[in-house]
């Protein structure tokens, strides 16, 4: 496994929000509106190993704006989890390493160990959103943007993202020797 040194160039969620030009208020609202139940909070509090999460994304992307606040909320509740964001446009060459079906997807979420080696990966959007956005029907880019903003305003969609991220966080903790 190779070290993902780009993590050291990435910024915190707070720095990302300060630099963002789009979707800032939406991301702040999603962070504040996401309520975690006691079981979900327990999972985050009991992570045993240091896990770094690197998000490759941009403030213009509706999928990033929908999912980044969920990750930020999780990281805020776990002393063992650190979140950093790398601008996908400024680091396009690095982002190319994580293509899906030959295409760059945003965001890409990498779960890394302390040595910045990849443990798990997640890309673009939760399974539920893939089911609801029929990519084969080829809606216009503008129609997709509107649909994605609406979907990510649904608390159940945010919970789907939360559960997918919690599963990967737990998997990463087990890979690192959780007992």
CATH topology: Glutaredoxin
Q: What is the helix tally?
A: 8
Order of helices and strands: HHHEHEHEEHHH
The CATH superfamily name is: Glutaredoxin
User: Largest beta sheet, briefly?
Assistant: 4 strands, mixed
Question: Which stretches are poorly predicted, pLDDT < 50 over at least 5 residues?
Answer: none
- Tell me the total number of β-strands: 4
Distance between the termini: 23 Å
What's the CATH C level? Alpha Beta
Helix content: 40-55%
- The global form is globular
Number of spatially distinct domains: 1
CATH architecture: 3-Layer(aba) Sandwich
Which radius of gyration do the C-alpha atoms yield? 16 Å
- Percentage of residues in DSSP E strands: 5-15%
Average pLDDT across residues? Answer: 93
Structural class, from helix and strand content? alpha+beta
Record the strand order, biggest sheet.
Answer: 2-1-3-4
Descriptive notes:
It is a single chain. With 179 residues, the protein is of the alpha+beta class. It has one domain (5-175): Glutaredoxin (3-Layer(aba) Sandwich). The protein is built from eight helices and four strands; from the N terminus they run αααβαβαββααα. The protein has helices at 13-19, 24-33, 38-45, 62-77, 92-95, 127-132, 141-152, 155-175; strands spanning 51-57, 81-87, 108-112, 118-123. The chain has a four-stranded mixed sheet with strand order 2-1-3-4, with helices on one face. Strand 1 (51-57), helix 4 (62-77) and strand 2 form a beta-alpha-beta unit. Helix 2 packs across helix 4 (62-77), helix 4 (62-77) packs parallel to helix 7 (141-152) and helix 4 (62-77) crosses helix 8 (155-175). The radius of gyration is 16 Å and the shape is globular. The mean pLDDT is 93.
């Amino acid at each position: 496994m190779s070290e993902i040194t780009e993590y050291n160039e990435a910024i915190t969620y707070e720095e990302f929000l300060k630099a963002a030009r789009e979707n800032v208020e939406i991301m702040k609202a999603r962070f504040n509106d996401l309520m975690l139940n006691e079981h979900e909070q327990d999972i985050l509090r009991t992570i045993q190993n240091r896990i770094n999460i690197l998000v490759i994304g941009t403030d213009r992307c509706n999928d990033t704006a929908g999912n980044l606040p969920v990750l930020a909320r999780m990281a805020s509740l776990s002393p063992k989890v650190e979140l950093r964001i790398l601008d996908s446009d400024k680091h396009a060459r690095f982002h190319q390493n994580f293509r899906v079906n030959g295409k760059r997807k945003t965001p890409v979420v990498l779960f890394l160990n302390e040595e910045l080696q990849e443990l798990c990966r997640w890309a673009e959007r939760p399974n539920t959103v893939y089911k609801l956005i029929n990519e084969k029907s080829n809606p216009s880019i503008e129609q997709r943007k509107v649909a994605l903003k609406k979907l990510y305003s649904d608390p159940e969609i945010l919970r789907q993202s939360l559960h997918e991220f919690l599963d990967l966080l737990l998997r990463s903790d087990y890979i690192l020797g959780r007992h």
